[in-house]
Amino acid sequence: MPVSHAHALALLPIAKGPRPGAQSLDRAVGLINLIAQNHDQGIPLSALVQASRLDRTTVWRMVENLQHAGLIEKNKQSGAFALGPRATAWGAVSFGQSALIRQCQPVMKNLARTTGDNVFLVLRMGDYSHCLHLEQGAHAVSSFRQTVGETRLLGLGVGSIAMLAALADEAVDGHHTRQVESYNQEGVTRAQLLRWVRSARHRGFAYRNTAGIAAVGLHGFLEGGAVAALSIGAAAARLPLSRATELAEVMRRQVPEAFRLSI
Fold first, then answer.
1. Cα-atom radius of gyration of the chain, to the nearest Å?
2. Within 13 A of 69's CA, how many CA atoms are on the CB side?
3. pLDDT surpassing 60 at residue 204
4. Beta strands 128-135 and 151-153: pairing type?
5. First to last CA, the chain
6. Which of 79, 90, 89, 97 is nearest to 127 (CA)?
7. Separation between Cα atoms, residue 130 and residue 86, nearest integer Å
8. I need a surface site. Which of 40, 59, 122, 124 has the fewest CB within 10 A?
9. What is the percent of the chain with per-residue pLDDT over 90, rounded to a whole number?
10. Residues 153-183: pLDDT tens digits?
11. C-alpha–C-alpha distance, residues 59 and 198, integer Å
12. How confident is the model at residue 13 (pLDDT cuts 50, 70, 90)?
């Protein structure tokens, strides 16, 4: 659970004296720890200064470096800091290898074998999605392997569109507002994002067909409450909308109870 700013001081480890050359690293790790404890609601700079017992200039310099490294990010509206995409991706990789992939791999292998196509497991991490695993079928697409381990903004992949479609319009709109600059760089407007989301809700699955590649995706929950999506991708010629409807039904039939697929 998120830790309140007032209680953050009590969670800091007791200092045992400086170690040569390690002071800056210790301070940076301490800041990341504070930000991680307050990830859901974010923590402002003033609270970081108070809880870390460091001067404001030192904290500001460190958070700038941590932002540059992708380990933390600043909410443009509130000014609060939360974990960044690189930190959450590292966490997803370590957790996913030990639990999530093991949980989903049998059904993914079966789907890849029965459909002949490529099956992806994608995990939601705040405003981002992270591709945890890929099982390739007989009709493998070599470029798909490059997506494993990739962290992208929600909405820039069929699995993450399915995850957005499970949210209310107000939540989707808030997400776009927070990330409007990144969406502008990708050429995705608010109207376009909402159109993709509403189309997924209407169909009961997300579907995209662009640049010679098509994919169908379904949102679900994994044990422990992780929000995820399964998707099947293929060359566009193999996956028209009519077949996407069939594949969505195949996924619903084959996934275990632990992965409750839904829109």
1. 20
2. 14
3. yes
4. antiparallel
5. 26
6. 89
7. 10
8. 40
9. 46
10. 999 999 999 999 988 888 898 889 888 999 9
11. 43
12. very low
Tell me the mean pLDDT in the region 228-237.
94
Q: Is 23 exposed, middle or buried (0-12, 13-18, 19+ CB in 10 A)?
A: exposed
Q: How far apart are CA 38 and CA 54, in angstroms?
A: 18
Model pTM greater than 0.90? no
Three-class SS of the chain: CCCCHHHHHHHCCCCCCCCCCCHHHHHHHHHHHHHHHCCCCCECHHHHHHHHCCCHHHHHHHHHHHHHCCCEEECCCCCCEEECHHHHHHHHHHHHHHHHHHHHHHHHHHHHHHHCCEEEEEEEECCEEEEEEEECCCCCCHHHHHHCCCEEECCCCHHHHHHHHCCCHHHHHHHHHHCHHHHHHHCCCHHHHHHHHHHHHHHCCEEEEECCEEEEEEEEECCCCCEEEEEEEEEHHHCCHHHHHHHHHHHHHHCCCCCCCEC
Q: Which residues pair with 145 in a beta bridge?
A: none
Q: Which of 234, 254, 253, 223 has the alpha carbon at shortest distance from 106?
A: 254
Q: Within 10 A of 185 (CB to CB), how many other CB atoms are there?
A: 10
